[in-house]
Specification:
The chain has 273 residues and is α+β, with helices and mostly antiparallel strands. The chain has two domains: 139 residues, Jelly Rolls (Sandwich); 107 residues, Arc Repressor Mutant, subunit A. 42% of the residues lie in helices and 20% in strands. It is built from ten helices and eleven strands. It has a five-stranded antiparallel sheet, with no helix packed on it. A four-stranded antiparallel sheet has the order 2-7-4-5. A hairpin with a 2-residue loop joins strand 4 and strand 5. Helix 2 packs antiparallel against helix 3. The protein is globular.
Amino acid sequence: MQPIKSIKYEKREDMFSSFIRDKLVFYPHIHSQIELIYVCAGKISVKVGNCRRVLKKNELAVIFPNTVHSYQSDSKCCVFLLIFNVEIVAEYAKLLTTMRPKNPFIGMDCLHEDALLALHNLGLKQKCSLNKSLLTGYLLILLGRIWEGLELEKATHGKDTSLLQRVLSFIDTHFYENLDLDEVARSLQISKYHLSRCFSQKIGVNFNVYVNALRDQYAENLLMTSNLSITDICYEAGFESLSTYYRAFLKTYGESPGKYRMRMQSYTMEACP
């Protein structure tokens, strides 16, 4: 599985982010924010914890904080993502951090029209900024309606899952540094060989491939959400040189960073069927 047109959020300091993408693929990853994936067109395979589903148009996935998740779209689609801090929706903070949905997926028949309206308004952030009150209000409406379709249970994690969470969380906050397998193993006080097996068995790729994919994703995110130059983005994401960055970006996205930025900046929710 190759990581294509996806996003890295963990290094971002924004309390709220929204994204539109025409394809999403990425390995299992984790972050401390809430993530919602809504399919505007096409379909995408999403795994949240031990649950997997192919989401179709007007269906939604709810990813609670610190939950391992991954996604893969094999064909062109239109996917809208929201990522935001628990602090914004303080009313739900305790539930979000202590509970998990038995089924994190919501079908089109169970998605209330209020939720769809909130999604639409939150998606307009790419064109105009929402003040904090409006942002909080729309998110509370959205979560309130989503909550109606969720059955919650107490969050529990086995030994293997806890290790995977620790590993992914550490890498997510250090991928832009000069990171290697030895340093991660030493920092987490685990065996280097056990860590290597964890990657091959739980994630399906080796350590270096995973870290480089995160750098590639974060660079793509900066192209879309900042005015930084391509050179600055290259080094901010942890690449050693511009040539390395360009090769990685072309291999993943099929075009140069500059062309990609121009094309995707004009790609909004209105472009979705």
